[in-house]
Amino acid sequence: xxxxxxxxFVASLYPLADGLPAPPIDSNQVQSRTKLEFLKAFYxxxxxxxxxxxxxxxxxxxxxxxxxxxxxDLKEALLNRDNLEEEYRSQGIWVEPEHEGDFVSNLRFFFxxxxxxxxxxxxxxxxxxxxx
Length: 132
What we know:
Helix content: 40-55%
Strand content: 5-15%
């Protein structure tokens, strides 16, 4: 589910996509769907980090318990994000996060040439072939 539909959604923790607001939730475009997946993953990471930072300000057993819980949430969010990045990297898609302070505020997307909407870069290489 798109986090923007959640009752407890925190808009300030939802990153931009290439400096622009997120694509529409119901978008059918492949690149837009990909962006939405990454935005969700980085939002979850931002949210978990914010909760952890707030919990660190609490003192005593309540604060320690909350910190342990939120560290686990942050680890899970980071693992999910890493798995998503790995999945898409094999397709030639990668994302560069931009930060404001501790939080990801914008994601720069790079799609391979020939994908829907064309990518920003064309990669070439040169190799020498053996002479026969």
